[in-house]
Amino acid sequence: MNLASNNGQQPQHRGGCLRGCLIGLAIYFGLSFIFGLILGDMFTPAKVKLEDYSIYKLELKGNLVEQGQSANPFAEILKDMPMYGNQTVSTGLDQIMENIRLAETNDKIKGIYILDGEMSMAPASAKAIRDRLQLFKERSGKWVIAYADNYDATNYYLASVADKIYLNATGHVDWHGLAAVKMYYTRLMEKVGVEMQILKVGTYKSAVEPFFRTSMSEADRKQTELYLNGTWEEYRSAVSASRGISEADLDKFADEYIGLQNAQTFVDCHLVDTVVYREEMDEILRIMSGSKDYKLMSTSKLAQVERPKATLPNRIAVLYAEGQIEGDDGEGITAKEILKQMKEIKKDDQVKAVVFRVNSPGGSADASEEIWHGVKDLQAKGLPVVVSMSDLAASGGYYISCAADYIYAEPTTLTGSIGIFGTIPNVKKIREKVGLDIDGVGTHKHSMMGSNMIYQGMNSEEQAMMQDMIERGYDLFTRRCADGRKMSQDDIKKIAEGRVWLGKDAKQIGLVDDMGNMSDAITKAAELAGIESYDINYYPESKDQLEEMLKLLSGEESEEEKLITRLKTFAKEPRVMMLMEEVVIK
Fold first, then answer.
1. Greater model confidence, 390 or 88
2. DSSP for 6-62?
3. Is 219 part of any domain?
4. Catalytic: 205?
5. Is residue 69 in a domain?
6. CA 459/CA 503 separation, integer angstroms
7. Which residues contact 201 (CB under 8 A, 6 or more apart)?
8. Are 269 and 414 part of one and the same domain?
9. What proportion of the chain, given as a percentage, has pLDDT over 90?
10. Which one in 66, 242, 335, 347 has a CA-CA gap of 20 to 30 Å to 536?
C-alpha cells in the first residue's frame, strides 16, 4: 500500500504525530485510572453491618474446602447463568470456624442455625466443626439448632451437637454404618489392551491395586476396616453422648437400616426431636431469636463483617497446603507456589512461628522433597513449624509434614501411607489391535527407554532399573520421616509399608505428637516461639471470586482440557508418585 498522498505533498512532521500520540495515551491512561477507581468502588464488596437479632445460618451445602473465597459482587447477578450459576458451591472451613468465633463473642448474634444441604465433607473436618460448635455452646450459653430434609451419617454426626434437631416431615436419617467401595479396572484394561506396569514399595500401598487386582488385598482390607471402624467409633460415641442414646442401640439402628423408616420413627428413637416442614422453621427461629424480625446471616455474609485489624507486633503465619502435590503446575499443592509463600513468610520479620495446615493425599515425590526442604529452611531462620493435619496428610502429605517441630492430627485424620509407587501404561496390545506401528533410532542403549516402556512394555532390565529408583525414593522418604520424628529408620519402616493410620493410632506409634485442631496448633506455635500476644497472617490470601469468575467467562482452559493436558504429560514420561487413594466414606 502506497502511503504517499495523491497530490504529491509531503507528509506531516513526525513531531506532530508524536505529540498527538502522547496526548492520546495520556487521555487513555487517565480515563482508565478513573474508570478503574469507579469499578473498584462499585465491585469491592461492602463490609456487612450486623443487626440485632441476627442468626448465623450455617448452611452445609456443596463442598467443604480449607480456605473460602472472598465475596463475589456479581454472584447474585450471575447465579442463574448456566456456565456460572450451576457450579458446585464451595465453603471454607476457615470461614466457618471464624464465623462461629464471631457468633460466640458478638451479642447481636443470638444463635446458630445448622441447615443441612448434604455437604460433602470428610470425618476430620466434620469433627473440627462439631467440636467448635460444642465450645460455642459452653462458652456463650447460646443455642444451636439443626434442620435437614435428609441427614447422611457424617452430617448427622455434626448436627447431633445441636440443642434441637429438626427433620423434614418426609425426611430420613441415613444411619446404616460406613462403607468404602473401590472399583477395579484390571479386567477392563485387559479387554481394551492396556497393561499398567506397576512399581511400588509397601505392602499396604493399595492405590495401584485397582490396576492389577480384581478385589482388595488382605492388607488393604485390614487397614480399610480399621479406619472405617475407628471413624464409626467416633461417630457413635459422640452421637450417644449428645442424644442420650446407648451405643448398643445406635449399632442396632444401623444394622436394621433405620434410615428406610418413616420420619416419626426417628423421633421415637430420639435421633431427632421434631418433624416439621421447612417453612415451619421460620416460626421456630422467631421464637429462638426472640424477634419476628430476625436476620439470617449466611457463611459468606458473616465473613464480610469487619474484624479488628492486625495491630500487634508479633505474627503467626498460617500456611495452607490442600490437594494433590505437584511440581510447577496444577490445581492442588504446587511446590512452586508453596515455596513462594514460604519466601514471603521468611521476609516478614514480624512472623515468629508457622502453622502448616496440610490436607493432601500425596503426589509427586520430587515436589514433596522440595516442600520438605522449604520447611527446613523456615526452621533454619529460627521459625518453629507446627503442622495441623486436616482430613488427609498421607503419603506425600506426610512427607511434607514430617520435619515439623510438632504435629497435630484429628482422631479421624488419615495419615501415614509412607510408601512410594510408579505406574507406567503399556499400550502395546491396543496399538497392535488398531494397526499402529512404532519405530525409531537412538544414540545409546536406553535412549528410547521412555517411549519403549509405554509402546512396547518394559523388559526385565528396564523393570529392575525402575524398581531400583522406586527403592531409593522409599529409602529417602523413610529417612526424612526418621529424622523428623527422631526415630530410627528401621522403626519407621516397621510402621511404613504404605499403611494408612487414623490420627489417634498415629499418635500411639509416634507419627504425630497429639490430637488437636488448627486452634491448638496456633497455640502451640506461639508457645514454641515464646510469644503470648500475636496476630495471624494467612498464606496464600484467599482466592478472589470475582477473579475466578472472570477466568470462567474468558474461556480459559476447561476441566476437560486440563484432564487431557495431564494425560499427555503422564504419557510423556513415567511419573513416580507417593499417593494414597481417596475413599468416600458414607
1. 390
2. TT-PPPPPHHHHHHHHHHHHHHHHHHHHHHHHHHHHHHSPPPBPP-TTEEEEEEEEE
3. no
4. yes
5. yes
6. 41
7. 419, 420, 421, 470, 471, 473, 474, 497, 498
8. no
9. 73
10. 335
In the predicted model, is pLDDT for residue 552 greater than 50? no
Kindly state whether residues 267 and 376 are assigned to the same domain: no
The reply to whether 382 and 298 lie within a common domain is: no
CA distances from 136 to 46, 55, 139, 236, 365 (A): 27, 14, 5, 22, 41
Cell of 508: 500411639
pLDDT of residue 89: 76
Catalytic residue among 206, 360, 364, 395: 395
Higher pLDDT, 535 or 569: 535
In a domain, 208, yes or no: no
Do 264 and 394 lie in one domain? The reply is no
Q: Among candidates 385, 352, 371, 392, which has minimal Cα distance to 533?
A: 352
Active-site position among 110, 205, 301, 493:
205
CB of 134 closer than 8 Å to CB of 144: no
The larger pLDDT score, comparing residue 391 to residue 81, is at 391
Residue 319 shares a structural domain with residue 294: no
Task: Write out pLDDT tens, residues 137-193.
Answer: 999 999 999 999 999 999 999 999 999 999 999 999 999 999 999 999 999 999 999
Same domain, 269 and 365: no
169 and 70 share one domain: yes
Beta bridge partner(s), residue 143:
111
Report the CATH number that the domain containing residue 96 is assigned in CATH: 3.90.226.10
Assess if residue 182 is contained within a domain: no
d(CA 354, CA 378): 8
Domain that holds residue 467: 315-421+460-543
What is the pLDDT at residue 570? 41
For residue range 192-242, list pLDDT tens digits in order: 999 999 989 988 889 899 999 999 999 999 999 999 999 999 999 999 999
DSSP lists the bridge partners of residue 20 as none
Residue type, 533: S
Do residue 267 and residue 363 come from a single domain? no
| Count of domains observed in the chain | 2
User: Which of 302, 337, 364 is the C-terminal boundary of a domain?
Assistant: 302
Q: Which three cell numbers stand for residue 140?
A: 456463650
The H-or-E segment that residue 296 falls in is strand 295-297
By three-state DSSP, how is residue 457 classified? coil
**Nearest Cα residue to 403 out of 374, 425, 361:** 374
Q: What is the mean pLDDT of residues 251-280?
A: 96
Cα 553 to the chain's mean position, in Å?
25
Cell triple for 228:
472405617
Rounded distance, CA 541 to CA 68, Å? 10
Write the pLDDT tens digit of every residue in 189-200: 999 999 999 989
Q: What is the pLDDT of residues 288-331, one digit of tens each?
A: 999 999 999 999 999 999 887 878 999 999 999 999 999 887 78
